[in-house]
Design a protein that fits this description.
Number of strands: 11
Radius of gyration: 61 Å
Strand order of the largest sheet: 6-8-9-11-10
Shape: rod-shaped
Order of helices and strands: HHEEHEEHHHHEHHEEHEEHHEE
Number of helices: 12
Length: 480
């Protein structure tokens, strides 16, 4: 449908230009013809009259120093040049000279008399007599007669030739108009076609017109507009995609936030309910709750657990919001891990777990000491807590000289985790133990905090199953 409309538009502008050009050319042709027909005779008669009069005046001026016989050549030349009849006559009408007669003093001509001249005045011609003087002759008259018949004949020829002229003029006008309209409208139609594509948001092709005029400027302006529009649309598309991503991210954040608050509420509700039961039992001295010292101690442990949970939540919040300022400095990783293992010896001894530290002394890395301590404490504590009774936790260091890296691996034996659950362990509050019993597991925030710390410090890590058990691998760039 659009192509048909465009075709009609193209035909319309070509037709208009063709008709206008044809009418203009035909009008000029008719105007030129009418001008020739009506004004050419008058112009020719005026021109011929002026030419004859100026020639006679020149002859009269020169004749004063010539005899009649000497002036013969001058008179003959005038007659030949102007296609006129010139003769000399006396006052009584006797012709003493004419180009068609010899000099005869008494010769009379019945052809040229006063009566003849009078008849000739009625014809469209020049007939003029003036007095002239020669050296040997006085009181002579010079008479000039010239017809304007050739121009009348030319006018009649123009009238008879009119049909042929009309055919030629019409053919030339129509042909010229067609070529002219095609020549002018071709770039316009091309620009219109490309502009229609641009209007349909198709910017794949630019308009190329090499004419060094306003059409080229128009095409360049349309190309510039097309490029700007395409750039704007690309920017809008990118912004729209970014907006969609932001909205989707906000939805995910909102979903996680709701899940987080629900989980926190659950984590706090259970110990609070237990504490409430203990305290009510102690208040009313119900059964075993009469032993207040025992249940006060248990409440104290529950409060400590809740306090630890709150601290972990606050740490997680700070890491997510980047509230604290990272203090990057040279850190003795060997001493840091040694201190952590000593602090966790009590927990390892309760499960008869052996912690083997193979980290060499004086191993330095460039990082934040406090954050690094928190991360490795969570990693090693998790390795101890989730290892079966009597297993071993290995702490080892390897070097990759090609990549210029140091790798610290923490391996706890006797454990195997399904591959689909490995990465989920880094989600907040995710625990393999579905009952969420605090006696058999932590809050589920430990590995999530580790993840946030390593992201903040730009440290690479991995967590996977190995032959002996589970390996947590941390990679540092090697200090030089």
């Amino acid at each position: 449908m659009n192509r048909i409309v465009n075709f009609m538009k193209m035909k319309k502008i070509t037709y208009k230009l063709f008709m206008i050009t044809s009418l203009i050319l035909l009008s000029f042709a008719v105007l030129i013809y009418l001008t020739l027909y009506f004004f050419l005779p008058t112009f020719y008669e005026q021109y011929k009259t002026n030419q004859l009069q100026s020639g006679i005046a020149e002859i009269i001026d020169k004749s004063k120093s010539l005899t009649v016989r000497e002036a013969k050549e001058l008179l003959d030349e005038y007659s030949k040049e102007n296609n006129a009849i010139i003769y000399l006559q006396e006052k009584n009408g006797n012709i003493i000279y004419s180009p068609s007669f010899n000099f005869q003093g008494n010769t009379q001509s019945s052809i040229i008399t006063g009566k003849t001249s009078q008849n000739e005045e009625t014809v469209n011609a020049f007939n003029h007599s003036l007095p002239i003087q020669f050296l040997n002759e006085r009181n002579l008259m010079v008479t000039v007669f010239a017809t304007f018949q050739p121009i009348d004949e030319a006018s009649q020829v123009l009238v008879r030739f009119l049909p042929y002229i009309s055919i030629i003029v019409v053919c030339i006008s129509l042909g010229s108009a067609y070529l002219y309209s095609r020549f002018i409208t071709k770039p316009l139609l091309y620009i219109n076609e490309r502009a229609q594509k641009m209007a349909n948001l198709d910017f794949s092709e630019n308009i190329i017109v090499r004419s060094n005029d306003e059409l080229e400027e128009l095409s360049n302006s349309l190309n510039e507009m097309s490029n700007n529009l395409q750039k704007t649309m690309d920017d809008l598309r990118i912004a729209n995609e970014q907006l969609k991503d932001d909205i989707e991210r906000e939805r995910k954040i909102e979903t996680k936030r709701r899940e987080f608050f629900a989980t926190v509420a659950h984590e706090l509700k259970t110990p609070l309910t237990v504490m409430k039961g203990y305290i009510e039992g102690m208040i009313y001295n119900i059964g075993p709750y009469e032993n207040r010292d025992f249940y006060l101690e248990r409440n104290h442990k529950i409060i400590e657990g809740m306090e630890q949970l709150v601290r972990e939540i606050l740490s997680m919040s700070k890491l997510e919001q980047n509230i604290f300022k990272i203090q990057m400095k040279e850190t003795n990783l060997s001493n840091l891990i040694e201190t952590i293992t000593k602090d966790l010896v009590f927990f390892a001894s309760q499960k008869e777990i052996t912690v083997i530290n193979k980290i060499p002394p004086n191993l330095y890395v460039f990082s934040d000491n406090d954050l690094l301590e928190k991360a490795f404490k969570n990693i090693i504590h998790n390795a101890i807590m989730y290892s079966p009774q009597g297993e071993t936790v290995y702490l080892e260091m390897t070097e990759d000289s090609e990549e210029n890296q140091i790798q610290i691996q923490v391996i706890n034996t006797g454990v195997h985790i399904k591959a689909e659950e490995l990465q989920q362990l880094f989600q907040p509050f995710y625990r393999l133990e579905k009952s969420r019993n605090r006696n058999t597991g932590g809050s589920g925030l430990g590995l999530y905090i580790v993840k946030q710390i390593f992201i903040s410090l730009s440290i690479n890590y991995s967590f996977n199953n190995v032959e002996k058990g589970i390996r947590f691998l941390v990679t540092f760039p090697q200090n030089k």
